[in-house]
Design the sequence.
């Protein structure tokens, strides 16, 4: 597995500002007192100041009555001041209401009785030897998907010679708050009609979507520790959970991932998972198991075993403070947790997790 590294910010000694002494207060006078001035001198001085004050008052009144109205803006009380001239007098700042600026973006997928929504494929990127990344654009560039954590979308396709449409659930790998698009990472399976259709699509072609299809409703700190057991493309709903947890600074949940694949090239979202492990080394750990490893592989080999799960997962005695999630191919479900009875029914817990002492309430099967 990848060795996590920790980046620590160097602490800085705060600067201390010295407080300067305040200067002593000093009274100022309009005229300096003069010893020996006669009463006549004082009277003469008062007469002169009276004349000057009257002249100043007349000048101020004349300016007030003849001022340009555009040059004065009213402030508090009766005080007036000259308004500053705009360097761009022709430009006006548009008024934006507070309700418009804070309104939530439109969600493309509303759930409930909403019908199918046709989305256009914008781009296709080869991800690895049998997987592609698809970007579909939402109806408007400012729209968000409306996806919840955790949830999926139903995808429908009906070819010209097909009697029935094919419907499959897929979990986007793009952020729920991303505006204008949805990203999917989809592996091509032999004789898989939906994956074959997707891998044969070209930009500007369309596909129908519906949802969101609710899965496990997540809220911050819902559990102290979660364990994720994934195989192949079963990583996508796990990544949705992981991203929601570590994008929320208030969520302190610890996450342990056990991820099985055929080869190292098949590990999806490897870069993103590695970055998270480096950023949150005390809260996120990932363990990789390969069925057909190369000679240079340093991680686990073979299948996900009982001993590995016992070693790395939180213990059953944590009760409802822990939750385990399972998603992968049918064979993995059968070995780890038992299969689901139906899309809406979890079924009984069996397999390795039951042998390790976990209860049905502690496990969720995607």
Sequence:
């Amino acid at each position: 597995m990848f060795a996590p590294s920790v980046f620590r910010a160097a602490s800085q000694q705060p600067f201390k500002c010295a407080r300067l002494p305040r200067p002593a207060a000093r009274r100022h006078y309009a005229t300096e007192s003069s010893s020996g001035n006669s009463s006549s001198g004082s009277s003469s001085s008062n007469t002169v100041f009276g004349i000057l004050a009257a002249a100043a008052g007349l000048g101020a009144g004349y300016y007030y009555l003849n001022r340009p109205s555009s040059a004065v803006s009213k402030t508090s009380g009766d005080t007036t001041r000259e308004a500053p001239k705009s360097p761009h007098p022709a430009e006006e700042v548009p008024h934006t209401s507070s309700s418009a600026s804070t309104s939530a973006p439109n969600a493309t997928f509303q759930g409930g009785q909403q019908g199918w929504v046709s989305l256009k494929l914008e781009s296709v990127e080869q991800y690895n030897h049998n997987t592609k990344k698809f970007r579909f654009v939402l109806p408007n560039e400012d729209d968000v998907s409306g996806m919840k954590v955790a949830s999926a979308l139903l995808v429908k396709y009906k070819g010209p010679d097909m009697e029935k449409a094919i419907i499959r659930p897929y979990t986007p790998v793009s952020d729920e708050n991303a505006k204008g698009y949805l990203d999917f990472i989809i592996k091509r399976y032999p004789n898989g009609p939906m994956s074959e259709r997707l891998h044969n699509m070209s930009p500007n072609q369309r596909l129908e979507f519906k949802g969101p299809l609710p899965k496990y409703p997540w809220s911050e700190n819902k559990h102290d520790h979660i364990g994720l057991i994934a195989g192949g493309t079963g990583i996508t709903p796990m990544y949705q959970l992981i991203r929601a947890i570590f994008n929320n600074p208030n969520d302190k949940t610890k996450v342990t991932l056990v991820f099985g694949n055929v080869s190292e090239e098949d590990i999806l979202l490897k870069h993103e998972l590695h970055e998270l492990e480096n950023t949150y080394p005390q809260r996120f750990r990932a363990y990789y198991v390969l069925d057909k490893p190369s000679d240079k592989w340093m991680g686990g080999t073979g299948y996900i075993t009982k001993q590995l799960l016992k070693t790395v997962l939180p213990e059953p005695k944590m009760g409802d403070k822990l939750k385990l999630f399972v998603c992968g191919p049918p064979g993995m479900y059968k070995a780890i947790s038992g299969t689901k009875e139906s899309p809406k029914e979890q079924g009984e817990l069996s397999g390795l997790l039951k042998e390790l002492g976990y209860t049905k309430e502690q496990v969720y099967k995607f």
Remarks:
- Confidence is low (pLDDT under 50) at residues 1-101.
